[in-house]
Structures are given as C-alpha cells and as structure tokens.
C-alpha cells in the first residue's frame, strides 16, 4: 500500500514536471573541432545557422554563450574540441545545411562541426559537417555548407 502510494505520488509529481517543461523542444549538442595547424584558433565569436530540407532554420548566435566548458574557457583554440548545448525548436527534417558566421578580428580554421538533436519521442538526428577551411574575416567571414539537402523541398542553393 505504502509503496503503491509512493509510486502514485511520484507519477503525479513527474507528470507535473514534464507538463511544465516544453516537450516540443529539441536539445542540440554541438561539437566544434579547431584544426591543429598554426594560427588556426580564433578569438572571434562564431554563430551558426542550422537548416533542413524544408528550409526550417535554427540560428544559434554566439556559440560561446552555449559552451559547456564554462565562461572563463577560451574557445576555438588550436587543436581543441569544444562542446556546446542548447534547447530550441525542433526542425521538421534532418539537419542538412550549415552556415557559419564569424565576427571578430582573427581568422579561424575549422576542421568540423557535428550537430546532434534529440527530442522526446523522436529519433536522434546527427550531422557531421566537414569544414576543413579557413574562415577569413577579410573575405566576409561567412561560410555556407550544404551536404545532403534534397532539392525537391527546395534547397537553400536556389
Ligand atoms: C514550446 O516550444 C515551442 C518551440 O520552441 C513553441 O512554439 C511553443 O509555443 C512552446 N509551447 C509552450 C506551451 O510553451
Ligand atoms: C563577442 O560576444 C561577446 C558577448 O558574448 C561580446 O561582448 C563581444 O563584444 C563579441 N565580440 C565580437 C568581436 O563581436
């Protein structure tokens, strides 16, 4: 009896907690690898725009604000992998495009950016974007990557 009651209270409590949380949100985790070559690191702020086939887009301004290494950590240093995580609206399709925007004063050589999204009752979506390029502040500093966007839904390319 006691235990049953306890379980029931627990169930009621957890359903309240879950109702208050927004279950339609996705959790995004982002791994960013800075190249292990001289001067590859940057102090610039990095913002990204993640998109799907439906042209749904999630903008994540200033990745550092979502860093999991703490506010005093220096992000985007030579040869290092940085982790970021945030909650946001889910995209309708799997992630297939990435725009990287740099704002600051020094260039950056990024090896890759890997993004995973998870949501309640949905399967995970993961995308590994090979960047392998310099982002040059003097050349506008924006880089657009589209790996597998299908054109029938209208890709960002057009
Ligand atoms: C839950 O989040 C989604 C996307 O962020 C938003 O559109 C919706 O209004 C939110 N619902 C509630 C109940 O807050
Ligand atoms: C980077 O973002 C921080 C806020 O997080 C801001 O204070 C700083 O001025 C930004 N730097 C550049 C170069 O945009």
TrEMBL record:
<protein>
    <submittedName>
        <fullName>PLAT domain-containing protein 3-like</fullName>
    </submittedName>
</protein>
<dbReference type="InterPro" id="IPR001024">
    <property type="entry name" value="PLAT/LH2_dom"/>
</dbReference>
<dbReference type="Pfam" id="PF06232">
    <property type="entry name" value="ATS3"/>
</dbReference>
<dbReference type="InterPro" id="IPR036392">
    <property type="entry name" value="PLAT/LH2_dom_sf"/>
</dbReference>
<feature type="domain" description="PLAT">
    <location>
        <begin position="26"/>
        <end position="149"/>
    </location>
</feature>
<dbReference type="InterPro" id="IPR010417">
    <property type="entry name" value="Embryo-specific_ATS3"/>
</dbReference>
<keyword id="KW-0732">Signal</keyword>
<feature type="signal peptide">
    <location>
        <begin position="1"/>
        <end position="21"/>
    </location>
</feature>
């Amino acid at each position: 009896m006691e235990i049953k009651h306890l379980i029931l209270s627990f169930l009621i409590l957890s359903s309240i907690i879950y109702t208050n949380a927004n279950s339609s949100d996705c959790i995004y985790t982002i791994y960013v690898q800075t190249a292990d070559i001289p001067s590859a690191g940057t102090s610039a702020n990095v913002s990204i725009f993640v998109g799907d086939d439906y042209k749904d887009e999630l903008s994540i301004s200033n990745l550092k604000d979502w860093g999991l290494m703490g506010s005093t950590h220096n992000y985007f240093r030579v040869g290092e992998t940085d982790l970021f995580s945030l909650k946001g609206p889910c995209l309708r399709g799997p992630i297939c495009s990435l725009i990287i925007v740099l704002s600051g004063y020094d260039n950056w050589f990024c090896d890759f950016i890997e993004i995973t999204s998870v949501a309640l009752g949905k399967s995970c979506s993961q995308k590994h974007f090979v960047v392998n390029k310099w982002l040059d502040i003097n050349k506008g500093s924006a880089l657009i990557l589209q790996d597998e966007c299908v054109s029938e839904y209208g890709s960002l390319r057009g």
